[in-house]
Amino acid sequence: MFSFFNKKKQPSVTRTNRTLSIDSINYVGRYTVSSNGKYTLTWCDGRYLLLENDQIIVDGKMKRPDDGIVTDDGVFVLIDLGSGTSGTFYAFNNAGDLLVKKAVRANIYNAGISRDGKFSVFQTAHSDNSSGNTLYFFELNSGNLIWKATPEKGWANSYEFDTDNCQLHLIYDDFRVSYDFNGKLLSFA
Predict the structure, then answer these.
(1) What is the span of the domain harbouring residue 46?
(2) Rounded to the nearest 5°, which phi and psi values hold at 65?
(3) Mind listing the pLDDT tens digit for each residue in 29-55?
(4) CATH number for the domain that contains residue 99
(5) In 2, 11, 34, 94, which residue has its Cα 20 to 30 A from 117's Cα atom?
(6) Can you tell me the distance from the alpha carbon of 108 to that of 66, in angstroms, rounded to the nearest whole number?
(7) Is residue 109 part of a domain?
(8) What is the pLDDT of residues 130-189, one digit of tens each?
(9) Are 68 and 105 spatial neighbours (Cβ–Cβ below 8 Å)?
(10) How far apart are CA 117 and CA 35, in angstroms?
(11) For 86-177, where are the alpha helices, taking DSSP H only?
């Protein structure tokens, strides 16, 4: 007898507030979920996984992955913490193909990605070289760094991408700073 279905065994995924575990592969890591709930990105020292509906679709290696973000289409970004004052920013598509890799000689403070997975940004902490205190803006389909600048008001808490109006908003505790997608400073609000 044969089966018309060739289903992979679904791994048993357990989530708490901060961690995800998959017992069948002896995995425990931090995680984030896309806003539509379809994709989960998880990471721990040495490894990262992308799950689609709790099925592993990408299993990658990275020395010290952190601060992952995943979009509704499964495009994702991770920061490799590096050692000392260095870090590397990565962006991948939902097949795990590398879109962007940018190494810097500063610690990476945080990152953001547009909902459509077409643009991303990261910001570095202070450093005694040109990589420090810099905001980097990428177009992910081409993998190009579009612009970089020293932020006007220090480290943003988060980022909002207005792709309809081609604007990036840096969100702070009580104000925002806006740039256009070409790096022109637009406003403080």
Answers:
(1) 13-141
(2) -65, 150
(3) 999 999 999 999 999 999 999 999 999
(4) 2.130.10.10
(5) 11
(6) 10
(7) yes
(8) 888 999 999 999 999 999 999 888 899 999 999 999 999 999 999 999 999 999 999 887
(9) no
(10) 12
(11) none
In the block, residue with structure tokens 């193909």: 97
> pTM score > 0.85 for this model?
yes
Classify residue 4: in a domain, yes or no.
Answer: no
- C-beta of residue 94 within 8 angstroms of C-beta of residue 75: yes
154 residue type, one letter: G
Q: Is residue 120 part of a domain?
A: yes
- The SS3 of residue 187 is strand
Q: What is the chain's length?
A: 189
> Is 73 a domain residue?
yes
Vertex 131: Cα angle to 62 and 174 (nearest 5)? 95
CB burial string 114-135: b at 16+ within 10 A, e below: bbebbbbbbbbbebeeebbbbb
From first CA to last CA, the distance across the chain in angstroms is 68
Distance CA 44, CA 41 (A): 11
Tokens read off for 43: 């990471």
Token code pair at residue 183: 């790096």
What tokens appear for 37 in the block? 């709930």
